[in-house]
Amino acid sequence: MLRRGLAIVLLVCGALTTMVTMVTPAGAAAHGARTVTVLSFNIHHGEGTDGVLDLDRIAEVIRESRADVVGLQEVDRHYSGRSDWADQAGALADRLGYHVAFGANIDRDPPAAGRPRIQYGTAILSRYPIVRSTNTYLYRSPDQEQRGLLHSELDVRGTRVHVYNTHLAASSRTDRLRQTRQLTELIEDTAPAVLVGDLNALPSATEITTLAEEFTDAWVAAGHGAGGTYPAENPDRRIDYVFTGTGLRPVWARVIDADPAASDHLPLAARLVVEPTS
What we know:
The protein is an alpha+beta fold. The protein contains 6 helices and 13 strands.
């Protein structure tokens, strides 16, 4: 287990690459019990399995899921021509009427004077106001891509809910093991809290069992079937997850397969009850 001191240093460093934008929320004032539907969705920078770049298609999948909070992975922000140099997180927030926070895990100088920075990472979209956000860099071997943990604190009708979003190393199990240990330290006893993300590991992997010892796997608790999310058009692997901590209870979990061509991953949704504090 990494020491708390390392986690604090990473938190301070990572916070420098976080962007939060407020957009008029869509339906955040609904009455009734405090329930939150969360969605984890690796959007493959908006490019579908058909090779077509289509953010409108991504937005429609999110809209039809009726998610209140969405954790997105593989999000471009003025990154390159592959995504038309767009701010994808901001564009999706505009289309959906959500608040947005962006965590840049790749952050490079602009291609020319007066142009925005080249960024790539994760994002959180929320119907509810985002009170604050930080992005924490996770462990990275020299030959691996930088990964991060985006943390947004939401005001859900007067209750603060902590949402964490991550995308772990794809090709290094060593990195994933270090990264999951960091996740448990960074989240610890924060409550109520939910972790979503593409973790690039099967449920039986040590990386995932490490998390399952500390948090509740929403699919195990409230899903049915295999829960495969990848590859989208023939999903035979469960590598996208929703984990809940103290104060949130999963009541159902579903893989959303309405449009398998939208991305190379299928999104995973879970309805969570915000439990009262004692």
